[in-house]
From TrEMBL:
CDD domains assigned: AdoMet_MTases
The keyword Kinase belongs to this UniProt entry's keyword annotation: no
Assigned keywords, A-Z: Methyltransferase, S-adenosyl-L-methionine, Transferase
Highest rank taxon of the organism: Bacteria
Name of the protein in its database record: Phospholipid methyltransferase
Range of residues in the leader sequence: none
InterPro entries: rRNA_Ade_Mease_Trfase_CS (IPR020596), SAM-dependent_MTases_sf (IPR029063)
GO MF, one example: rRNA (adenine-N6,N6-)-dimethyltransferase activity
Length: 200
């Protein structure tokens, strides 16, 4: 039986959506949605990337690779992408479907120790694909501090949210943040926010 590329892609997307939903059922508070990000949101996140030739991109919360795929399609070489995923089943899925990228299994707050030493300080952009709005402020602080430890001074990180307000406690964490994009095509509609240290 011959399958077209479109049919194979549809099967792969259905499989990814089912796995994502199963992992959401297992731990709903750790995942932002019951479905993977739509292509519109994934492309919007990937469009924010800033990266020098020797710099890498870090993605927090790889899931089933919706944003991962958009990052690669935006031109980031696979070996320059580090994706952090805490769920071992999802991490395994990412390794199988994106064999050229670096999949780091663990807590995003430990990103400094998880990255190779020669990459620390050379992270051009961090894309946060986690439900930050549900995370307590002290845990947000640990994640934000970890992000800025691995990036050059003055850089920004990005996070998406389904809320009308910032997903991160800006004032409490000493951040400046602004909405840089919105898509109604995602379910639910989503905004992308840019964050820098206040005073940067």
């Amino acid at each position: 039986m011959i399958h077209s590329h479109a049919t194979l892609r549809t099967h792969k997307e259905a499989s990814a959506a089912w796995l994502f939903f199963k992992r959401w059922l297992a731990n709903p508070l750790s995942m932002a949605s019951i479905t993977p990000s739509a292509p519109s949101l994934s492309r919007l996140m990937a469009a924010q990337i800033t990266r020098g030739p020797d710099e890498v991109v870090v993605e927090f919360g790889g899931g089933t690779g919706a944003v991962t795929r958009a990052i690669l399609e935006a031109g980031v070489p696979a070996d320059k992408l580090f994706t952090v995923e805490r769920d071992s089943e999802l991490a395994g899925y990412l390794r199988r479907h994106f064999p050229g990228i670096h999949v780091l299994e663990g807590d995003v707050a430990d990103i400094r120790s998880m990255l190779p030493e020669d990459v620390r300080g050379k992270v051009g952009t961090v894309l946060v694909c986690l439900p930050m709005i549900l995370i307590p402020v002290e845990d947000q602080r640990a994640i934000v501090d970890a992000i800025f430890e691995v990036m050059p001074p003055g850089r920004a990180f990005y996070a998406y949210t389904y809320s009308a307000r910032s997903p991160i406690r800006r004032k409490a964490l000493g951040l400046k943040g602004r909405r840089v994009g919105f898509t109604i095509a995602n379910i639910p509609p989503a905004s992308v926010w840019r964050f820098v240290r206040d005073g940067a």
